[in-house]
Design brief:
By secondary structure, the chain is mainly α. The chain has four helices and no strands. The radius of gyration is 20 Å and the shape is flat. It starts with a helix and ends with a helix. About 14% of the residues have low confidence.
């Protein structure tokens, strides 16, 4: 995933969080709005941490990738604990919190769809080990060479 796509997704999450919080305060009152604000804050923090993990996975060695995937699983457990603390112990409105946390899902979807339709994506370049350097998907060197040879033969 390239840097522009990550920025688009971050903006989409922030925008959807703002809409969710504003609508929650307007239509649900102070209690629902405060829950939505807390959920939006958790969703933005969750996305920033997920984004950090994704960049490490994309650039890392196999050992780094394995460590980051373990951290990703741990992050999911910590998120569950945060939800339990915020709703159970602090008594924030669960529906409002869910609306704020839902901004992550909406923002990821909208931002990813925007990135799919964008022509600004960085071209895929391969390094000596056959891995993509521009943040795109990992490509096997032999497979890439075969694809390039076949493309040259066609033209």
């Amino acid at each position: 995933m390239d840097r522009r796509a990550l920025e688009r997704i971050t903006s989409a999450i922030a925008f959807s969080a703002a809409i969710a919080v504003t609508a929650s305060y307007a239509f649900g009152g102070l209690r629902v709005g405060t829950g939505a604000l807390a959920g939006a804050a958790v969703s933005l923090g969750n996305w920033q941490f997920l984004r950090w993990i994704l960049t490490r996975v994309a650039r890392g060695s196999t050992r780094t990738r394995a460590a980051m995937m373990t951290l990703l699983a741990t992050k999911l457990g910590v998120l569950g604990l945060i939800v339990w603390v915020v709703i159970g112990l602090f008594g924030l409105h669960a529906g409002g919190f869910g609306l704020g946390l839902g901004a992550l899902v909406v923002g990821l979807s909208v931002g990813a769809l925007q990135s799919l339709g964008s022509d600004e994506a960085e071209p895929l370049t391969l390094g000596p080990d056959g891995l993509a350097l521009a943040g795109g998907p990992s490509v096997d060197g032999a497979l890439a060479d075969t694809a390039l040879d076949s493309a040259r033969k066609e033209h």
